UniProtKB/TrEMBL annotation, chains A, B:
Span of domain Catechol dioxygenase N-terminal: 24-98
Gene3D superfamilies referenced in this protein's UniProt entry, alphabetically: Aromatic compound dioxygenase (2.60.130.10)
Domain of life: Bacteria
Gene Ontology molecular function: any one: dioxygenase activity
Organism, as annotated: Pelagibacterium nitratireducens
Keyword Metal-binding in record: yes
Alphabetized CDD domains for the sequence: 1_2-HQD (cd03461)
Keyword line: Dioxygenase, Iron, Metal-binding, Oxidoreductase
UniProt keyword Oxidoreductase present: yes
InterPro entries tied to this protein: 1_2-HQD/HQD (IPR039390), Catechol_dOase_N (IPR007535), Intradiol_dOase_C (IPR000627), Intradiol_dOase_core (IPR015889), Intradiol_RC_Dioxygenase (IPR050770)
Cofactor list: Fe(3+)
Name of this chain's protein: Intradiol ring-cleavage dioxygenase
Sequence ranges assigned to domain Intradiol ring-cleavage dioxygenases in this UniProt record: 104-264
Family recorded in the similarity comment: Belongs to the intradiol ring-cleavage dioxygenase family.
Length: 289, 289
């Protein structure tokens, strides 16, 4: 094929060939695959010039709304299921290891370290929830000293970083005890919408999709010799479990909240007679290679 | 398939299904095809989390360098051959109609209207070139009154808009006469690099690709009842004809410059004895549907 006469049939091979001298073989593989799939997409939909211009405009707006606080390209990747696909490919889990899901945009590095049974709700309104969790290897060996970062939205579906004020709230780090156990008080989380006032929100609207994520608590769990586990626990009964806007739900991550029985344990700030829920969960960490 | 249990195999169908209620059937088709090809790409290369983060960073930088004067997403589309593919799909040309190529980033709306035989070089250094062209229907009927916009780089490979000063230079609009003919003086253009100081330039460098486009003159030709023709004429002998950075070359658009014989025609500013070239070309316009 002459490289000076491209047509709609020959151009893909010509572009793939143009990447033949890429020194890094992995980059070469990625660029050539990108070209083939992008061209196949354009060809399959028989893209018009006008649609191409719209696509350029969409990407431009996505770039312009992205800043230090907002990552609209990640949101786009999330809402197209690409983030979860990458997550799944990179976390093929052995028996006994907890499944992963997306990190999400609301994690903050180095959350405040809290002692066992601390209340992380900071006085937020909501149904009190007492969480106990054990961190273990796939064979059940407890992982004492594991760092357990937790973060979640309030009862209205907002994270602290989305609200005025700088105080960390509903986020904390715990250290697992000799039995690999952590426990803390929080409140029952609520479903919430992803930021929907940008190009990704426009896409969701145009395609009749809602922006909601089912209620969940985020966990990031870390112990030497094991892969860092980034996951959520979703709350059974949430109306959006079957339609998470970012496709983050896995059956194994859905948990039921039990009604608390008797006086709230270890809670100085909960008068007896308080109605409360409890959540008990065991996390398994995958050994690092 | 449960929509609350995504894994690397089921997630693509789940995301495609999520677009099922898109009211506009064309948008639905495009989004579903986009998801399938994007997922197939990620799966084929077995994308790592780290590579995904790099891709997000690349798109973010591409968005941030894009402004009113610079469109890095178009440059990306151009260098991946996507622009030319879209062009080819949308301009399947009948016999007798000139082939199209990319518009490029240097077109300026409403260039200065010039009379026949005007010199558009504005005194730029270079080998004088006398261009004559006829504009016709595919059957040869001359298209009197056609607007012919021309623009090109100078002898150093720069367009006027890339240089200080506001005067339009090496760009003009001509009106075809009763025989569908236009003629003008210019200079022989030079190959030039696309802007290579941004993310797209980084990509070209990392893949051992050069940023050059072979020397060309841009034409945009317009006549009622016909599709607007956006094309170039490339100069035979250019060293980059076989490796245009944006894949814009078509064999039918490569022309030879002839040596000018005798005194330069209709050129008040060319002393006799001037060495000059000539280019004669016939353009065919495709009837509008
Ligand atoms: Cu594909
Ligand atoms: Fe969240
Ligand atoms: Fe050009």
């Amino acid at each position: 094929m002459s490289t000076r006469d491209f047509n709609e049939h020959s151009i893909t091979d010509a572009v793939v060939e143009r990447f033949a001298d890429t020194p890094d073989p992995r980059l070469k593989q990625i660029m050539q695959a990108l070209v083939r799939h992008a061209h196949a997409f354009v060809r399959e939909v028989d893209m018009s010039q006008d649609e191409w211009i719209k696509a350029i405009g969409f990407l431009t707006r996505t770039g312009h709304i992205t800043d230090d606080k907002r990552q609209e390209f990640i949101l786009l990747s999330d809402t197209l299921g690409i983030s979860m696909l990458v997550d799944a490919i990179n976390h093929r889990m052995p028996e006994g290891a907890t499944e992963t899901t997306v990190l999400g945009p609301f994690y903050v590095q180095n959350p405040p370290l809290k002692p066992a049974d601390a209340d992380i709700s900071g006085g937020e309104h909501g149904v009190p929830l007492y969480v106990t969790a054990t961190i273990a290897a796939p064979d059940g060996m407890p992982l004492a000293g594991a760092h357990v970062d937790v973060w979640q939205s309030d009862e209205d579906g907002f994270y602290d970083v989305q609200k005025p004020g700088d105080d960390p709230n509903l986020r904390a780090r715990f250290t697992a005890d000799q039995n690999g156990k952590v426990s803390f008080w929080t409140i029952v989380p609520k479903f919430y919408p992803i930021p929907a006032d940008g190009p990704v929100g426009d896409m969701l609207k145009a395609t009749d999709r809602h922006p909601y994520r089912p209620a969940h608590i985020h966990f990031m769990i870390d112990h030497e010799g094991y892969e860092t586990l980034v996951t959520h626990l979703f709350i059974e009964g949430d109306p959006y479990l079957d339609s998470d806007a970012v496709f983050g739900v896995k059956q194994s991550l859905i948990v039921s909240l039990e009604d608390g029985a008797g006086a709230p344990p270890a809670a100085a700030n909960k008068p007896s007679g308080t109605i409360w829920k409890r959540l008990d969960h065991n996390f398994g960490l995958k050994p690092a290679l």
